[in-house]
Each structure stands twice: as C-alpha cells, then as structure tokens.
C-alpha cells in the first residue's frame, strides 16, 4: 500500500469490490463499502500497530506496577514468566490490548482532524502547534470513555500473579463490578483520561516540529525527500517516534498512578470475593468521582514519598519505546492505508 498507489478505473458490481493498481507493481482488491473510509484506514493502521507493539506493552505494565515498591524490572519479569510462561509475553491479555489499542489509535487519528476543524474551522494541516494540541487533547475524551473497561481488563490480566482470571478480561471486569457496582468497570478512569489527553495533545502538537527537525537532518546528509525514494517512510517513522516518545513525558506519571490504582482496586475486589464478603452498595456517580480523585491523589503521593519524582517515571523508557513505536507506525501506516482505500 504505497503512497503512489492509484485506483483502477473499474469496480466489480457483482463482487462489490474495487481493484487498485499499485505503481510499484501488483494489485489489491478492496471491498467497495470500504473505499473512501478514513475510519477504516485508521482502524487497519491501529490493528497492525497494536499487534506489533504488544510485547512492549506487557513489559511497560509489569514495570509500572512496581512503582513505590522495592521490586525491580528483572524480578518483576521473572515473576510474570513463572506465572504465565514465555507465551504470556505475547498472549496474556492480548485480546483486550489489541482491541483497546486498535480502538484507541483508530479513534485518535480519525477524530483529530474532525475535532480540529470543528473547533477552529480550519484544516489541521494549517493549524498552529497550540491548536493541534488542543484538538488532540479534546478528541481523546472519546478514547478514554470507549477504552475504560478494556484498560481495567488488560491491567488485571497483565498483573495477574497466579493466573486467577484464566486470561479472561470479562472475569476481571465482572469482579470489579461486583465489588463497586457498574462504575467499577471504569476504575482508574481519571488516570486513563489524563494519560490519553496529555499524550494525544503533545503528540499532534509536536509532530510538525519533529518533522521539521528530521527534514533538517536529512538535508545535512544530502537525503532530501525528493532525492531519495526511501526517505519519506523513514521520515515518517523517525518523526512519529520522536513525537510519541516526547509526548510520553507528559503522560507517564498518569499511567504509573493509574496502573497502581487499578492494581489496588482489583486486588481488593479479589480479596472480597475470596473472603465471601457480602456485596456492598454500588457506588453512585458522585461517590465514584470522589473515590477516583482520592485514590489517584493518595497513591500518587505514596509513590512520590517512596521514590520521589523518579517514582512517577518508573518504566518511562519502556513507555517511550512503546508509544514512540505506536506513533512511528501510525504516522507511517495511516497515509498509506488512506491512499489504498482512496481517501486522498
């Protein structure tokens, strides 16, 4: 799916498909209902990205869950390996993470230009860094609401030390709902939203800056975009990775705190179920909001007291590698899928 792809002039009415000829050779067949669909392009890009980056996400979650404790990365990985085996690094919570990440990435890249134009009445390509950051942070609200329960399921499985949930995300969410009521499915939402909005805003707000820096670096090497056909993909990867890693500076504390809030709530729900404690009354909306603020503030202070500011950045390099990789792949794949589906 190269940017230079072009559509053939015919579509098959009988099969409901459209054939697209690639200038680099070969032909792909696209279902007619997907032709021109920007969301389909971002969804396909997000799906590929989520699968490619999953093992890194497991290491990120395991590392961040140890903030405020004396455990180190090696011991945490050994513990995870003993509980789930080598296959756990590619399958434990994989279904939930692939679903979560695919929805997250596809919504992010699909809604960003929509929100930008709705808020500022100009195309995102002509927006300032501040406008792009604002549109990114705002559109991420939709992501947070959509992926909230999947975040709970994923963390519960990735941090399951005895494989209690048998790799079932539904079992994790059901346990939290039993303990806290319907809002239990959104345990840690405050941190999730903080993470989503801060990263998305910083990513889109800085992407043009990093694209310019990569251009300048290529120019010094005599590798201008028009001189070397291999430069554009490399340019997308490097600028996307840089923007993604940079944006991680803003959302890493949120992810550390959020991970530990969910870890604590899931552990409490398991203890209550094991002890046979009677179900308590479901949390009201106000009680849920109050508990979210209290839990994030309490756990954030505890981590800071134990390890200082560095405690809030535990696992940063894992996270920067994960989100930098996501940014790189999405920056590379979205334009190509859009071209293949005739969106441009």
Overall average residue pLDDT: 82
Q: Ends: how far apart?
A: 13 Å
Compute the number of strand runs. 3
Structural class by helix and strand composition = mainly alpha
Strand order of the largest sheet: 1-2-3
Order of helices and strands: EEEHHHHHHHHHH
So what's the overall shape?
A: globular
Report the biggest beta sheet as strand number plus sense, adding barrel if it closes.
3 strands, antiparallel
Tell me the radius of gyration: 22 Å
Strand content bin: under 5%
Percent helix among the residues?
55-70%
SS element count, helices: 10
Low-confidence stretches: 1-15
Describe what you observe in this structure.
By secondary structure, the chain is mainly α. 69% of the residues lie in helices and 5% in strands. A three-stranded antiparallel β-sheet has the order 1-2-3, with no helix packed on it. Strand 1 (6-12) and strand 2 form a beta hairpin. Helix 1 packs across helix 4, helix 4 runs antiparallel to helix 5 and helix 8 (231-275) packs across helix 9. The longest helix is centred in the last third of the chain and has 45 residues, at 231-275. The radius of gyration is 22 Å and the shape is globular. The protein starts with 5 loop residues before the first strand and ends with a helix. Mean pLDDT is 82; it is low at 1-15.
In short:
The protein is mainly α. The chain has helices at 38-64, 73-84, 88-91, 94-120, 129-158, 169-180, 189-220, 231-275, 285-307, 316-340; strands at residues 6-12, 17-21, 27-31. α1 (38-64) packs across α4 (94-120) and α8 packs across α10.
């Amino acid at each position: 799916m190269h940017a230079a792809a072009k559509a053939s002039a015919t579509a098959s009415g009988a099969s409901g498909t459209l054939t697209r000829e690639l200038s680099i050779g070969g032909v792909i067949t696209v279902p007619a209902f997907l032709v021109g669909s920007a969301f389909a392009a971002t969804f396909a890009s997000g799906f590929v990205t989520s699968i490619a980056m999953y093992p890194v996400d497991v290491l990120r979650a395991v590392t961040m869950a140890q903030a405020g404790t004396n455990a180190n990365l090696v011991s945490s990985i050994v513990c995870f390996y003993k509980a789930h085996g080598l296959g756990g690094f590619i399958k434990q919570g994989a279904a939930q993470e692939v679903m979560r990440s695919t929805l997250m990435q596809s919504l992010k890249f699909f809604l960003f230009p929509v929100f930008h134009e709705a808020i500022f009445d100009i195309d995102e390509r002509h927006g300032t860094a501040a406008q792009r950051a604002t549109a990114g942070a705002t559109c991420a609200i939709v992501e947070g609401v959509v992926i909230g329960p999947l975040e709970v399921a994923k963390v519960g499985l990735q941090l399951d030390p005895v494989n209690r949930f048998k790799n079932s995300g539904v079992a994790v969410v059901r346990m939290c709902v039993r303990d806290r009521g319907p809002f239990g499915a959104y345990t840690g939402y405050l941190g999730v939203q903080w993470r989503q909005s801060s990263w998305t805003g910083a990513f889109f707000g800085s992407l043009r800056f990093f694209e310019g820096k990569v251009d300048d670096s290529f120019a010094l090497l005599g590798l201008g975009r028009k001189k070397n056909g291999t430069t554009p993909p490399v340019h997308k990867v490097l600028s996307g990775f840089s923007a993604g890693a940079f944006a991680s500076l803003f959302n890493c504390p949120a992810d550390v705190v959020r991970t530990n809030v969910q870890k604590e709530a899931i552990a409490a729900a398991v203890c209550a179920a094991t002890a046979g404690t009677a179900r308590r009354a479901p949390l009201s909306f106000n009680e849920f909001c109050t508990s979210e603020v209290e839990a994030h503030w309490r756990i954030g202070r505890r981590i800071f007291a134990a390890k200082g500011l560095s405690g809030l950045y535990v696992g940063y390099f894992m996270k920067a590698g994960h989100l930098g990789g996501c940014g790189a792949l999405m920056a590379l794949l979205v334009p190509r899928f859009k071209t293949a589906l005739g969106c441009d």
